[in-house]
Design a protein that fits this description.
alpha+beta; Beta-Lactamase; Alpha-Beta Plaits; six-stranded antiparallel β-sheet; six-stranded mixed β-sheet; 19 strands; elongated
Amino acid sequence: MALGKDISSDARSLAEAFVRLAPDPAIVIDEDGDVLAANDLAAGLYERTERELTSMNATELLAADETLEDFTTESREGPTVSVHLRRDGQPFAAETSVRGLDADDSRMFAVSIRDVERCYDPHDELRLARLALDAAWDGVIMHTPEGEMVYFNTAAASSLGYTHDEFEALGPWAWMKNTDPRVRIQRMEELQRTGELSFISHGEHKDGTEMFLDVHARWLNTPSGPLIVSVSRDVTDKMQAQEMLREMAFHDPLTGLANRALLDDRLEVAIGEASRHGDLLGIAYLDIDDFKPVNDSFGHDVGDQVLETIGRRLGNLVRDHDTVARMGGDEFVAVFTRLSSEAGLERAASKLLRAIRQPIEVEGVRVLLTASCGLAMFDPAEDDERSLLMKADLAMYEAKRSAHMTFREKVTEAGGDSRPVKTASK
């Protein structure tokens, strides 16, 4: 047993008695964390001599992310677990029990330390299980079907930005974002029926940022009643990366409009619905007139900004269930579903053309453009996605020649001999 810096005789006697009688590794520190006394068990635990320990500050025995509070906070609710360091810097998990000692005007803290790895007690499995759960990266929550919190580990609270007390008051569901109570009831019923359930939960971090958690839940029937145990992992980065990939796969990177792949998918769905319900479906195929001089005269950066502006204007003019796509270059296609008549398609296309004719100001340059537009109505007896697009494409080229917005009624197998049935001013 060794004693550190000068203290009063009463304080010295008290510190000496504690470390000598302690059955576990023990040290006594002052309010600044300086080690006043240490027994040989503590010396062996930290792989230092007793004299070395009494010349150190307690923070030197702790890992970098631990604080002196681990040695100065009295243990009213049982031991606390923190990461300590041996002489060679090797970290180890230890339980500390702290109680205050008062002698004369001195305030000291008596600290008992147990190396969790070396003190395994097969009869203390519950304590070790809780220790293991608190060390887990994934969040673990145990609650009743009614929502009463029974247990949660550190990761469950910290992954959402909450302290232990804040998360306990929050409850197991309050952090979920825009979750319909009916969905929660359905999940609870399925969990009770099947015994386990996996799902992605949309939630909100304490700071307001959106989160996604991959949740795996089990229903446990215990003598005290049913409990739900769920393990959750933050998959926000993964979900955002997947969303970005989907965006890149199905949207034009310049305008943000649908690309050809998404247009094909939307057109297939629209044709299916029109065939089943008898709805009128039409498309408008637009090509910007004489766009090449814009790039040649002002550069591709200006040209890209012009196309971006046009794409934004067109996207703002269609209904939620309609689609505008950029086909590449200066060509755009709009799909209009649930039309009331052919005239409705013509009116909708005229709005798009007027939007393109509006002046566009880019980097001090004022650009005036027009577009040629071909229209086609879906014929359930003859059309599929390919032929419908081809009709509108051919009508667009007819419109370029005639300076009129053009309808096409049908197209031959060779794709050449199709008949315009109506023209309107461009």
